[in-house]
């Protein structure tokens, strides 16, 4: 009889069992092998199926099918265990990568913060320098403007003084001309009065002469 054996590794084997009488089984030194085969689970299953009325071939076929199913189940279990181990290993690798990434990110952040702080300090220095230069330029412009204003004030003051002097001179000249014109008018008036008086006197004399001649 042939039947498939179930091993822990999931590989089925074929064991040959001789069918004979009890005398042949107990002789020739083969009793130990037959006894070990009788203890095999597959052999007991075959014998149980035969006891239920199945033929040897049917019992062996059923036993082989069940053994194959069990072997497939063991293979699936081993694959699942391997997959779980690989998954745990992958998780550990991912955790290690995440820790490494966190460390790198932290280092990059510290470096970036240090660079930003250094750039900020340099920027503050540049701003202070620009402020100082701008303040100096503003002071210089203010000083120039004050100087220009003072010069302009002096120039305007001089122009006003010159204009005042010119106005005073013109006023004096006008006053003199007015006085001279008044003097001329007074003289002309006096001459006109004298002329009128002399004319009246002459007319009076002529009138008297005419009256004397007529009388």
Automatic annotation (TrEMBL):
<dbReference type="InterPro" id="IPR024461">
    <property type="entry name" value="CCDC90-like"/>
</dbReference>
<dbReference type="Pfam" id="PF07798">
    <property type="entry name" value="CCDC90-like"/>
</dbReference>
<keyword id="KW-0175">Coiled coil</keyword>
<keyword id="KW-0812">Transmembrane</keyword>
<protein>
    <submittedName>
        <fullName>Detected protein of confused Function</fullName>
    </submittedName>
</protein>
<dbReference type="GO" id="GO:0016020">
    <property type="term" value="C:membrane"/>
</dbReference>
<keyword id="KW-0472">Membrane</keyword>
<keyword id="KW-1133">Transmembrane helix</keyword>
<keyword id="KW-0496">Mitochondrion</keyword>
<feature type="coiled-coil region">
    <location>
        <begin position="113"/>
        <end position="140"/>
    </location>
</feature>
<dbReference type="GO" id="GO:0005739">
    <property type="term" value="C:mitochondrion"/>
</dbReference>
<feature type="compositionally biased region" description="Acidic residues">
    <location>
        <begin position="19"/>
        <end position="40"/>
    </location>
</feature>
<feature type="region of interest" description="Disordered">
    <location>
        <begin position="1"/>
        <end position="42"/>
    </location>
</feature>
